[in-house]
Hints:
Layout: H1 6-15, H2 17-27, H3 32-47, H4 59-92, H5 101-119, H6 123-133, H7 139-146, H8 150-170
Helix pairs in contact: 1-4, 2-3, 3-4, 5-8, 6-7, 6-8, 7-8
Amino acid sequence: MARNGASVLIASFQENYEQLFRFLTRKLNGDCERAADVVQDTYIRLADTPDPGEVIDNPRAYIYRVAGNLAIDWLRREKRITANHDVSEDADTIHDPKPGPEHIILGREQILLLDKALQNLPEKPRAALLMFRVDGLSHSEIAQRLGVSNSMVAKYIARALQHCRDELLRGGEK
């Protein structure tokens, strides 16, 4: 049975008010207050509907479509507002990629400890470590310069790294 006109839509709206309210509450993530607002917006939209001259076969489905579209519009609007709000908060806060004073002081202390640890190393292990880590030389190049075997270079570097690590963990306590 086909019906038309705003009065038919309002009558169907009144019959389905509770179900529509629950539907919108679920669609709006449990926000009852927003669902009530969208229900009222739906009523206003339906009341303003001119008589289209067309027949609305299923007024209930039409009402749910209008309400669902209004809910989607609200969710999109809320998402835009939230996105704009987040951007404005970020604009107020400027992120400085440089380390803070505390990190700088801690870094300097570690460099001093590392320098002290390197000074306490025997000559060849210290030279092997510096040539490997600072100069970027290979084990065979270091072996040639120091006049030792490749395996001895590996042992020097391992011993130097172990010594420096132990000194840094100890924190220079002696």
